[in-house]
Design a protein that fits this description.
Elements (H helix, E strand, L loop, with lengths): L1 H5 L2 H46 L3 H11 L5 E6 L3 E10 L10 E10 L9 E3 L3
Antiparallel strand pairs: 1-2, 1-4, 2-3
Helix pairs in contact: 2-3
Length: 127
């Protein structure tokens, strides 16, 4: 008799838990995506700072960095006589059902400007 009353309970329990499990899985995958974007931004910022420190044009540096990061990134390049700085900021949208705001991943890199590189302070903030 007891078996008949329990029939279908597992289905009901799974139906209640499944949406929560899907949401947790989506948030975990979002975390992996954020980590991946962070690594790409860090690598791009370091490469851009080295290129700017060697004296590459800021347009070329900006192009180099933009090709290495996801679309929608904001890239800032600044070079003066002492240091070359590159900053990359990328918004990473959350899963739709999470209802969370986008995380902005930011990476910065600084390299000492080499002697003979353009020593005029220049900043490129174009979008």
């Amino acid at each position: 008799m007891r078996r008949r009353r329990d029939a279908g309970m597992a289905t009901a329990e799974i139906a209640m838990a499944l949406p929560a499990l899907v949401l947790v899985a989506a948030i975990v995958l979002w975390g992996v995506a954020v980590a991946s974007v962070r690594l790409a931004c860090s690598d791009a910022a370091r490469g851009g700072a080295r290129a700017a420190a060697r004296g590459e044009s800021l347009a070329a540096v900006r192009s180099l960095v933009e090709h290495a990061v996801p679309p929608g990134a904001r890239v800032t390049v600044h070079r003066d006589g002492e240091a070359s700085r590159v900053e990359v900021a990328v918004p990473v949208p959350p899963p739709v059902a999470a209802g969370l705001p986008a995380l902005t991943v930011t990476a910065r890199a600084v390299a000492a400007t080499e002697p003979g590189a353009d020593s005029v302070p220049v900043t490129d903030l174009s979008p």
